[in-house]
Every structure is written in C-alpha cells, then in structure tokens.
Automatic annotation (TrEMBL):
The keyword Iron does not apply. Coiled coil: none annotated. GO terms for molecular function: polygalacturonase activity. It comes from Triticum aestivum (Wheat). Residues 83-143 form the Rhamnogalacturonase A/B/Epimerase-like pectate lyase domain. PANTHER family: POLYGALACTURONASE QRT3. InterPro entries: Pectin_lyas_fold (IPR012334), Pectin_lyase_fold/virulence (IPR011050), QRT3-like (IPR039279), RHGA/B-epi-like_pectate_lyase (IPR024535). This is Rhamnogalacturonase A/B/Epimerase-like pectate lyase domain-containing protein. The keyword Signal applies. Keywords: Signal. It comes from the Eukaryota. Residues 1-32 form the signal peptide.
Length: 485
C-alpha cells in the first residue's frame, strides 16, 4: 500500500519529531565528547547529524508530495479524500458542489465487504478533508443513498450560494426517496462532521440527519440558516457537541433580534444528545419532538421570550422523556407541553427566563424542576408558569430552586400564622404552582400553656385553615405538598 496523504501527514509529523529527538540526543552525545577536549569533533558531529536530520525530512517531504499528487487517481490506499484534489475551489469563488460530491462518491466506494449495523457498508474511516478552504455550493451535499458508515467530513467551510434551494441542507445524511421505501432501516452510521463552518446564506439549513445512527456533529459553527441549523429525523444517537449555532452572527443586544427566525436544532427522533452548545440567534433554540433526548450545557440566547422567541421547546405532549441540566437560559424560556417525565436541574435562568408548562390534554406527571437559579427584573414573573389547566398532576416536584427578582413557585411549601383567636389561615396561593391543589398537609399548633382541641378545617384555594375549639393565642406551622403520594 502506497503511503498517501492521511498516513503521509501523520507520518511526516512523526518523522519530524523523531528527527528532532535524534538531533537532541546526538547533540547531547556531542557535548559528552567535548568534555574530552575535541571541540572541532563536536562541531563536525553536530553538522553531520543536522544534515542527516535535514536529509531525512527532505526524503519524507518528497514522498509525501508524490503521495499527495497521486491521491485523486489512487483507488487503493489512503481513504483521505482532499476536495482540492478534485478541483474544488478553496477560495469560495466558484461553485464546488460537483467536485465535493465526486470526492464523497469516491469515499463511499467501500474498501472491503465489511458492514456495520443493518448492513451499512463500512467505509473504513474514510475522510472528506476540506483542506481549510471555503467552498461555495449551489446544492446540497447529499450522502449517497447506498449508505455508509465510519466516515468523516472535516476542516473547512461551506457556504450556500444564492442559488441554493431553500428547502435543503448543506450536508444531508439522507437516502431520500429510497428511505421512504424502507423507512425502518438505517442508512448511515458513525458519520462525523467536525471542525466545519456552515453558512446557509439565509436560504436552507445546515445539516440534515435522517434515519442515521451514531452521528457526531462536533466543533461546528452553523449560521445563516433559514429553516434549521441541524435537523435530526428518525434514527438515533445523533450527538451534537461543542457547537455554535446562530442565524445571524451577533453577540447579544442585536437591533434585529425581534426578526430572528429559524430553529437552531430540531430533534425529531429519540436518544439524541446536545451538549456544550451555544445558540446565539434563532427564533427557537432547540425544538424537541422525540423522546429520550438529553440536553446539557446549552447556552440559549437566541431570541428573547419577550420578543416571541423560545429557548427550548419540548413538543412531545404525554411522553416528554427529556432531561436537561447545566443549561444557561439567557432571556429565553423552556416550554414543555404536557410534560411527562421531564427533568430540569442545575440550570441558570436569566432575564425573566422561566419554565412554562403548557397544557394540551392537561397532564403533568413525573416532572422534576429542582436546584435551578433564576434571576429576573422584578416584574413578578413566575419561575415556573402554567399555560392552561392541568387536570392530572402526579409526581410533580418543583422545589429547591432559588430566585431573585422573580416569583418563586413550588409544589411544596412551608408557612406559619400567628394570632389570638380560634382560626388560623396560611395562604399558599402565591407560592404553589398548581391552583387549588393540596395533596398533603402537615401542621403543628403551638399555644403556650393552652391545650385546645384543634383541626384542619379547609384547604380550598391553596389556603390552609386550622381551627381551635376555643380562643387561644397560638402559632400554626404548616407544610404542604401538591402531590398526594
Ligand atoms: C467481497 O464479496 C465478493 C462477493 O461475495 C467477493 O467476490 C469478494 O472477493 C469480496 N471481497 C473481499 C475483499 O473480501
Ligand atoms: C386574646 O384575646 C382574649 C380575648 O379575646 C384576651 O383576653 C387575651 O388577653 C388575648 N391574649 C393575648 C396574648 O393577646
Ligand atoms: C372551604 O373554603 C371555601 C372557600 O372559602 C368554601 O367555599 C368552602 O365551603 C369551605 N369548605 C368547608 C368544608 O368549610
């Protein structure tokens, strides 16, 4: 097998390091000789070994150059496909769609009969290398419908031209119509998109991942999307990490913020993960319409909720199965429709950003919103807010959050009332999340030396009333929980 670009480059670096190490080692040796007084011998030895190292580097360079030139025509050997070898213009002046597609087609010719899940051809680690260039594309780079896995596209920029179709994506992992005929199967597996800047030119979207398994989008910057920055449909285990998405290149307080559009990430599938991602402009940060997705370390400042934006929209009423942690919701809220199995913790909400539970069929079950920090502007915004009425509320825990400048809402609360008489009322309406719902009450009555008969009289309207059989001076301490279990 000929040494080609990928191996050649790694090999070159290795060779340089080795040559360097040899030089250092031998210089040390020369120093040792100098102690025996032979200064001339020392200089000669240094020169000799420097020449040796230089010669070695030169021979590596020339074999590397030869390999590099032979790349485009080589069918066996390296699986690194440099798009510039296919004539793609790295200056971004001329359309490079056909050249890059040709490189992708070559990479999709499998090196062996090895297959991955569901018979997906194993491309053996093939890479489309963008050579640090910027490429103009008139149409989507759609991976071949024959499918493939163990493949990467990396290290460069793609820019949609003014002719780019508005309903497509710069990179599409999509088998198109053949996917419809075999909708249950997967077409791509372990495809990595890394170190890419994608500029959709306010026309289409950035990346579509359809019916794929184990796809990684890592360290990308996706901008100019009109539809979605990244759209995942079907399949599972798309991992979006360390990535920046924004329709407009901006860094907050943008005069055009009210008109931001598009969705940075759409997860229309299960078992995906979004971590360490920033959404800096879009109407919606993340739209989730599938279950069992995890979101962590996401900073959303896409379009303030006050301007009609949404940070994270969980549109999976009745089976949310989403867990969110360590996020920074920066003026943009989380909206969850009929949350069933939802966890939100360890997150920071700034600028009146909150969590909105939106009733569709009025079911909230298995919800944990705990241990978050909220910071608002003193306008009386609830940290967790209901949009509509919930008839079914089970295992909903909104507690141990901290708030400044916002109303602290919870599903459990403590309070006390002090007075001289026979009735004590503790009003939990301002703090309890669900109206007129108390599932559990515990109280104690402290009346000094008095020993009155007492009872829980009423809990209607989230107001707890305790009564005594005679007038006493007493304090009543009450603990309530909106769950009955
Ligand atoms: C791949 O499979 C074909 C058909 O079964 C066979 O002819 C060929 O030798 C195989 N190639 C390798 C590299 O195993
Ligand atoms: C409570 O009220 C009763 C009569 O209503 C009065 O006699 C008593 O002094 C009061 N006690 C206190 C502690 O205010
Ligand atoms: C509880 O309080 C509500 C509101 O004040 C009232 O309508 C209701 O009749 C009370 N229930 C009882 C059992 O006293």
């Amino acid at each position: 097998m000929e040494v080609l670009a990928g191996g050649g480059r790694g090999g070159l670096l290795h060779a340089v390091l080795l040559a360097g190490a040899a030089l250092v080692a031998l210089t040390g040796g020369a120093e040792a000789w100098a102690h025996h007084g032979a200064a001339g011998a020392r200089a000669g030895a240094e020169r000799r070994y420097r020449d040796l190292a230089a010669g070695r580097m030169e021979s590596v360079r020339s074999s590397f150059g030869k390999a590099r030139r032979g790349l485009a025509t080589s069918s066996a050997g390296s699986r690194v496909y440099h798009v510039t070898d296919y004539g793609a213009d790295p200056t971004g002046a001329a359309d490079a769609t056909a050249a890059i597609k040709k490189a992708i087609a070559d990479a999709f010719s499998p090196p062996s009969n090895a297959t991955m899940t569901a018979g997906i051809p194993d491309l053996g680690g093939a890479e489309i290398h963008l050579d640090g260039g910027t490429y103009l594309v008139n149409g989507p780079l759609t991976l071949p419908a024959s499918g493939g896995g163990n493949f990467k596209i990396h290290s460069g920029s793609l820019r949609a031209s003014a002719e780019f179709p508005t309903d497509r994506y710069l990179i599409e992992l999509s088998a198109g119509s053949s996917a419809a005929s075999s909708s249950s199967s997967y077409h791509y597996e372990y495809v990595t998109l890394r170190d890419l800047m994608l500029d959709c030119g306010y026309r289409g979207g950035g990346v579509a991942v359809v019916d794929s398994l184990r796809v990684g989008v890592d360290n990308c910057y996706i901008t100019g999307f009109e539809t979605e920055g990244i759209a995942v449909r079907g399949g599972h285990e798309t991992y979006i990490r360390n990535t920046f998405l924004g329709q407009h290149m901006t860094a907050g307080t943008d005069p055009g913020e009210r008109s931001f559009g598009g969705t940075a990430i759409r997860l229309d599938g299960n078992d995906n993960s979004v971590s360490d991602v920033v959404v800096f402009s879009a109407a919606t940060g993340i739209m989730v319409t599938g279950g069992a997705n995890t979101i962590s370390g996401v900073h959303c400042y896409n379009k303030a909720t006050g301007f009609g934006g949404t940070g994270i929209h969980l549109k999976v009423p009745g089976l949310t199965q989403t867990w969110l942690s360590n996020c920074y919701m920066d003026y943009t809220s989380i909206v969850a429709e009929d949350p069933v199995l939802l966890h939100v913790s360890g997150s920071f909400f700034l600028g009146d950003a909150n969590v909105v539970l939106k009733a569709v069929n009025g079911v909230a079950r298995g919800v944990q919103i705990t241990g978050n920090m909220f910071n608002g502007r003193g306008k009386g915004v609830d940290i967790v807010q209901l949009d509509g009425e919930f008839g079914t509320v089970e295992q909903v825990y909104v507690q141990q959050n901290s708030a400044m400048g916002m109303n602290l809402k919870a599903t459990t609360a403590r309070g006390s009332a002090e007075g001289n008489g026979s009735s004590w009322t503790v009003d939990f309406a301002p703090v309890l999340l669900f109206p007129d719902r108390i599932g559990h009450v515990q109280y104690s009555l402290v009346a000094g030396d008095a020993f009155p008969g007492h009872t829980l009289r009423n809990i209607s309207g989230n107001q707890v009333v305790v009564a005594t059989d005679k007038a006493v001076s007493a304090t009543v301490h009450v603990l309530v929980d909106q769950n009955s279990n």
